[in-house]
Amino acid sequence: MPIQHLAKRALSPILSFQEIRHALFMMVFALIPTLSVFAVFEIYMTKPVIVAMCQTDLPAITGHDLVPLFNYYIVLVAHVLISVGVGVGAARSAFRNTSAVKKPILTRFRIIVFLSLLLVVLVADAMHTNLAMLSHDRIFSVLSKAPSLSPMFRHELNFAHSAIATPTMFSILPITGVAAALWAMSTVILCASKFLVEFQRTDDSVEPHDRVASFAIAMEALRSHFLALSLVLVTSTFGTIAFFRTPLGLLSGAARHNYQAVTDAIGLVWGVTFSLTLIALCIYPFCVLREQFENLQKDARETHNDVLGRWLRKNKVLLQVPANLRLVLSMLSPATIAVISHLLST
Questions:
Q1: Could you report the per-residue pLDDT of 241-298, keeping only the tens digit for each?
Q2: How far apart are CA 84 and CA 23, in angstroms?
Q3: What predicted TM-score, i.e. pTM, was given to this entire model?
Q4: Residue 300 domain boundaries
Q5: Which of 180, 154, 149 is nearest to 167 (CA)?
Q6: What is the domain count for the chain?
Q7: What are phi and psi for residue 80, nearest 5 degrees?
């Protein structure tokens, strides 16, 4: 049947390459924190509360300070450049020494992962979920009232005496920032899955020192790439907070104070969410490494391999928190930045 044939063609790459299976697990883990936060906001916050927090009935614009907007532009450019740099570096590692048959499939899979993650973000925004309204609509509702900025918020294109709804000029900026971060994340996920596969290929027939070297290489590669991804999410946190604060220069008095209070709270939500995403991404690869480490211990006991046994005893802390403190701190850095930003603004 045509449907069965299409399903078989779609699933065959997943069943054929272990890199894709690892990447799928990591992508699912990465989505759990964000989807959980969205669910909490949808269940426990009513629409009247969201509308009140969005402050759609703000008075006329009372200020003309565009410095927060310029700050957002600068942080956005830095974030995009860093995300592209991390993505390019991870892509070189992900596709190095890859067969001609596997490379195009992995390339297409990376694009699918990127588009899937971006689609989740766009659908959440298009459905006007509570968190999306607090993160998007409330900013646009203020900026669009400024006479100097209103042309960037027109969402209709007049063509042949008819109006066509289009994305606004300003909306392209946050979409670009989100897309850059997701592109870097999808590439790092694919790169991490490749190192996991290469490590798992070492079996009992391989010399002990080669198995040890393979484990150390995989461990260091995962650390370095997740550290690079943490830099992307740190700049993403800066960009998110700067984006939320763009309207502050147009408000004053009580309106500014109330608006900033909600802005800082939502910035904290996203900072914590980014940290949770990094932690969730690390769970699956480190579980795989721990399983392989336990297999090495079992092999050392069964074969009475003194060389392997000494290395395992010496490096048994490799997968513990103290040995990965730098990585742990980098995972917590988005939340830390959001907390510091909140404290400094109060």
A1: 999 999 888 888 778 888 888 899 999 999 999 999 999 998 888 888 787 777 777 7
A2: 20
A3: 0.84
A4: 2-345
A5: 154
A6: 1
A7: -65, -45
